[in-house]
Amino acid sequence: MRAVVQRVSHASVTVEGEIVGEITGPGLMALVGATHTDTEAEARRLAAKMWKLRILDEEKSCSDIGAPLLVVSQFTLYGDARKGRRPTWQAAAPGPVAEPLVDAVVKELRELGAHVETGAFGAVMSVSLTNEGPFTVVLDV
User: What CATH number should be reported for the domain whose range is 2-140?
Assistant: First the structure.
């Protein structure tokens, strides 16, 4: 699995003009994608890594200060544009495989004690955020 994680002071996701997920204060915005071979174990590892990732102020993690996370599914993280100008999405897991894995990340984060907001899987979403730092990390598990 792969995540692009950003340190934010605010982040929200809107579907059809309605906010479906929003966090404020210091926290993390995570775009999460899955490939064909990913498993629930990897989803749990990714969640634990995000929860303990020390990229907030003073090298704190979400677990240290109870910071919220906004998790949004993002199949395009597995896009490949090395050949030509049109990306291929062959490495991205199809919806029936990816959706339960993204759900597993969210479930594990919540079991670890995190406040988690989400987007809407498969929807056309508008994501807004204020990246603090800026600070962005790519996580692969």
Answer: 3.50.80.10
